[in-house]
Amino acid sequence: MPAQHRSRHPLTGDPPTGDPHTYGGDVLAVQAHLTDRDRLIIDWVNRHGVLTTAQLTAAFFTNPTTAAHRLAKLRDLRLLDRFHRPAPGAWLSPWHWVIGPLGATITAAADGTTPPTPRALRARHAGLANSVKLPHLLGVNQFFIDLHVYARTHPHTALVQWWSEAETITRFHGLIHPDGHALWRHHDTLVGVFVEHDRGTEPLSRLVRKLSAYNQLTTNGGPTYPILFWLPNPTRETNLHRELAQHVSDRQTTVATAVASPDGPGHSETVSDLHDNPGRWALHQLPCDHGNPNSVYSPAVNDPAFDPPPHLR
Fold first, then answer.
1. What is the pLDDT of residues 133-151, one digit of tens each?
2. Which long-range contacts (CB under 8 A, 24 or more apart) does 264-273 make?
3. Are 292 and 148 in a shared domain?
4. Which domain does 260 fall in, by range?
5. Same domain (yes/no): 123, 151
């Protein structure tokens, strides 16, 4: 390839201005060439910290080659960045995608906040790459990715909302600390769920103690959403059921469990309801109350875009 074409803009084909190593420095020029899918990818990676190539491919593409090419272009534009984290026994670990400098600038502008400095962004990425909590974060994100993927092939369903741990803590004023929150729509039914991802490393008693904060949320007029413990295997699920059975009086909200499966959390036989309806249920069949709309803990107060179906208003 002639040298004069190697440094052209990855999306527009125009020669870059300024430093040839800072493609996409003109935010407005890049914005004009981003698709809705690009914008959602950037938003999700920024809000949820890190997503693997497999997760992004499943969520947004139908062809792995197309996904690889598009993600590479977004990296060339400095909208995304990536790192490898060696996995024990693996020849090559997957790419882990994080927000890039220009992506951080665009998302900060949308939020009305100050973007991180390059140094702060590098420190954030280094922290993720070396964190012992990375497998847990990827596991949490996989739950929501599975929901989104399920909805892609089931038009009557939708992942209406996905809040990260940090977003959920902020929106509910620090009262609860789940690993994430979702609003899941099935036809005209809208169900909220708080997700607690368990990797089998904590005592079961500690999982049960988390319920008191959710009880307080309900008492304060917040939503009564199912608390879903997403577990690594059936044995862990059985043991948690036994532990929860000793604390029935401590539960004011529905507690459900699920084990990670290839069918994903949207599958109709994934969730075990431990409240009043023992058995396997779909997410949309779990009891759900969106709470007092005037409470500071109401989803409608925390998110002006919250728009439940007519029968829930």
1. 999 999 999 999 999 999 9
2. 264/146, 264/147, 264/149, 264/150, 265/143, 265/146, 265/147, 265/150, 265/228, 265/230, 266/146, 266/147, 266/150, 266/151, 266/154, 266/157, 266/184, 267/150, 271/228, 272/237, 272/241, 273/226
3. yes
4. 140-312
5. no
